[in-house]
Amino acid sequence: MKRERRAFISFVLAFSGLFLFSTSSAQETDSLRTSIIDGIQSNLDAVKSLEAHVTEKSLQPVMIDRKVRLVNRNSERIIWFSAPKCRQQLKTQMPDRSGQMALYASDALFDGQNTQQLINSRAILQKGNVLGPAQDLGVGYRFEGWILPQSLRYATKMELEDESNGGNQRHLIKVTMVGPGRVNYTSTLWLDRDAGFLIVRASRADAEGRPVSERRNTTLTKQGGAWFVTHGEDEAWKYDDDDQRQTTGSRVWDVTLQSVNQPIPASALNLTYPAGTIVTDLSVPRRTAARPDKLPDIAMVAQYRRPHRQAKILAGVAGGVLLVIAAGSIAAVWRKRIRN
């Protein structure tokens, strides 16, 4: 009887210890999550205005002659931000119908309520900010579909980790998350606690633990009281039937901070429509009466229109057909692999 009692007491103590450890671990994770959220918000709030020039060299998959090919692309982006307004100009290359790379340019402005995007002689008006926050220059808090701090609720593990970087000690938080999109893919982000919790390194692995993408060689810069990622490299891979790794895309970007928390000229936050611009307005419900008098430079607008309901239906049907075809192709590939 005494032996059974001792065994029971040992079991209770062990269970209690496990429960206390789990509770402590959960509390530590919640504490780290709160610190990260507060640190990110503080770094974003420190940026009241900025002008930045971003250059990017990338290797991206492009459909040419019904085949996916990797092509080199150079991009230049200028960002102006003065809360709440933001403007981004982009110059890059896109393949034309013949498969030749041609100049692609766009100019987008969020005026505090709606987003105007001008591409060649066409403009699109959309409700809200579709550009995303400009303060992190599109890279500081984003990786492979994860956007911080919103994505932290999917974190499965957080832990403190220090490392040496060129003789300097970095104080990091290692965050592990599953997904996004594919629940069997695991992403790991390393955030710098001393630099606004920016992503300084990241990796993503498939269900077999093989790396499929990573971010490396980042450079952090502090200016105007805020931290930015001003250099970085991304690369992605896939694996063939022989388990050989192949590059599916890469990019290297550099940022030049022209000014931070300095006055931005009003002209930099004004989008002018060239003569003959065709405007498609998605910012109001389809049945709402058109009010082109509210558009800038209305004298330059050649045509103001709302997209037809039939066009939306056709686009939805086409998208559904493409999804079915893609699903069938994937299933066929897996069946072939299973047979082999």
Structure description:
The protein has 340 residues and is of the alpha+beta class. The chain folds into two domains: 44-265, outer membrane lipoprotein receptor (LolB), chain A, CATH 2.50.20; 272-305, no CATH class. The chain is built from two helices and 17 strands. The strands form two sheets. A 15-stranded mixed β-sheet has the order 9-10-11-12-13-14-15-1-2-3-4-5-6-16-17, covered by helices on one side. Strands 7-8 form a two-stranded antiparallel sheet. A hairpin with a 5-residue loop joins strand 12 and strand 13 (211-223). The longest helix has 44 residues, at 2-45.
**The CATH class of the largest domain:** Mainly Beta
> Can you tell me the overall shape?
globular
- Overall structural class, as computed from helix and strand content, comes to alpha+beta
* DSSP, total strands: 17
Largest sheet: 15 strands, mixed
Short synopsis of the structure:
By secondary structure, this protein is α+β, with helices and mostly antiparallel strands.
Topology:
Elements (H helix, E strand, L loop, with lengths): L1 H44 L3 E16 L2 E16 L2 E11 L5 E10 L3 E6 L2 E6 L14 E2 L2 E2 L7 E11 L2 E11 L7 E7 L6 E7 L5 E13 L2 E14 L5 E16 L16 E5 L19 E5 L3 H31 L1
Name the features.
340 residues, alpha+beta, 15-stranded mixed sheet, two-stranded antiparallel sheet, 22% helix, 46% strand, globular, disordered C terminus
